[in-house]
Amino acid sequence: MTATAPETTPVVLLHALSLHATMWHAQEHALRAAGHTVLAPDQRGFGGRPLGTAAPSLDVIADDLADTLDRHRAPRAVIVGSSMGGYVAMAFLRRHPERVAGLALLSARATADSPEAAAQRLRFAELVQDDEHRATLVEKTTPLLLGPTTRTENPDVLTRVLADAHDSPPAALAWAQRAIAARADSTDVLRGARVPALVLAGAEDALVSADESAHVAATLPHARLVTVPGAGHLQPLETPDDVTRALLALLDDIRTANGAPSC
């Protein structure tokens, strides 16, 4: 695929919890080189963006994204979300379905949290704001975001993710966990999404199971499921080339669906 003039429909890359937009650096560079307009916003509270005073809700972040698209005069976008970013993408799809031209969900489940999972998130939100427990909590939980292959063969990725997690404002981490814990089940929302879609799963993901990713793909009417070997929960950082290839294939599918030739 050769570089062309930028596509009029941007690709939005939504980052995972405790990280920020730079987690998409490899994909952002490659998609732009292929001629796509890319927006990779920091979500509120992360990457230096103010948290604000709104109560925790993914709908708030979804509406932030709508405002971002308005500022870029983009009526529609291809929405790509990793982990928390995937939950924001589903919230955006629920609130602004007419603005979604395509969808990619990485390591995000369609269902709401169980009571036990929600309670764990709320407990995390409490502990991460406690100076006595924060560092230990981050050191214990952050490595779970990466697969054993990455932790063993690419320790620099773990070092980077740990640094980002330690640098994230505790209030932002707590706000985001509470927002995710309160999210609604998105199964019906995904079932009604009549757009090209991609579900990306890490073969070594310890947080979102293969069955959960398969459920998301089966729920979306026009989805393709791609399982990435050697990757855990953060495939854009662990196996960047595999993620880039999958996203470029999705964008080709969207061109075809819109009646435009693939470049």
Top keywords for this entry?
263 residues; six-stranded parallel sheet; Rossmann fold; alpha/beta; 12 helices; 12% strand
Give a verbal description of the structure:
- This protein is α/β, with parallel strands linked by helices.
- The chain has a domain at 11-111 and 184-257: Alpha/Beta hydrolase fold, catalytic domain (Rossmann fold), CATH 3.40.50.1820.
- It is built from 12 helices and 6 strands.
- The protein has helices at residues 25-33, 58-71, 84-95, 115-128, 134-141, 148-153, 155-167, 170-181, 187-191, 210-219, 235-238, 240-257, and strands at residues 11-14, 38-39, 77-82, 100-106, 197-202, 223-228.
- The radius of gyration is 17 Å and the shape is globular.
- The chain starts with 10 loop residues before the first strand and ends in a 6-residue tail after the last helix.
Name given to the CATH architecture of the domain at 11-111 and 184-257 = 3-Layer(aba) Sandwich
CATH superfamily of the domain at 11-111 and 184-257: Alpha/Beta hydrolase fold, catalytic domain
Principal-axis shape equals globular
Helix-strand category: alpha/beta
CATH level-1 class of the domain at 11-111 and 184-257: Alpha Beta
Low-confidence stretches: 1-7
Strand content: 5-15%
Helix content: 40-55%
Main pleated-sheet profile: 6 strands, parallel
CATH fold-level assignment of the domain at 11-111 and 184-257: Rossmann fold
Radius of gyration, in Å, reads: 17 Å
Overall pLDDT metric: 95
How many DSSP-defined strands? 6
Biggest sheet: strands side by side, in what order? 2-1-3-4-5-6
Number of helices: 12
Taken in chain order, the helices and strands follow as: EHEHEHEHHHHHHEHEHH
Q: Distance between the terminal alpha carbons, to the nearest Å? A: 6 Å
